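Step 1: inspect the first sequence and its tokens.
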Amino acid sequence: MPINEWSDSIQVAELQNDPSFAEDMGLLAVYYQRCADDRKAGRADARTRDAVLDMRHVQFLNSSNIAQLLRVRKLAHLAGAQVRICSVSDRIWGILLATDLDGIFDFSEDVTTALAAVQMTRGK
């Protein structure tokens, strides 16, 4: 499975084109929904991992994929986690610019830089 636990606090999703993209984003949405519910219920033992979305293998995004990205971002935010997108091709970057998603998500050049940025943001 391309969603890997990089550490106790970060997971890396190596996204592919559909149908894998939809499946992986669905798994992330379920995970963050559960974490958001735990946080809302005040469960102190709840541990939420930040996410790095590695898009180096993604060659296209459709409206459903964009909706999934936004859903995961919203649920992660509710759960107290951050989402960072990395390794975006020029083609995908054009789609993100055209849909104004470049101002909503945080981006990094590659996975290593994304991991460092997430850790720095968390103060680790």
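Step 2: inspect the second sequence and its tokens, then contrast the two.
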Amino acid sequence: MASRSTLVAVASTQLAAQVAGHLVALRRRRHFDVPFLTGSPDHLVRDWLWFGTAYSAPPYLVGPQAWAVARLLRGPDERATWVLRWLGTGLTVGYLSERLARERVRPSGFDPLETPIVAAGWGGAIALAVLTRR
């Protein structure tokens, strides 16, 4: 498992990507679009509460991530590491299932603002899943 400072840095970067992704998704009206379920640009905030946006997780996932980072800043914490492991794994799958996220990492879908946010968020999620394994 990675050092505590590395986990804090990766989790904080991923959390910052979530916040930036949320702001961009609200401004550009990027609703979630996963297999068998699609949000609405007209109900973006309501949908974010339950499913997230195209580039950010819902608050019930962002909150525990912020909590885990705060706990790790105070010292080693197995529960916080466990939370980051499961969030990293879940977010990795979430980014993979999101249509716009997949589109933004393709060369044909490059956007100067959205692509770096997706890359940082998705890469951070993968790093959390890998770094927190036992």
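Step 3: confirm your contrast with the notes below.
The helical segments are 4-28, 44-51, 59-74, 78-97, 99-104, 114-131. The mean pLDDT is 96.
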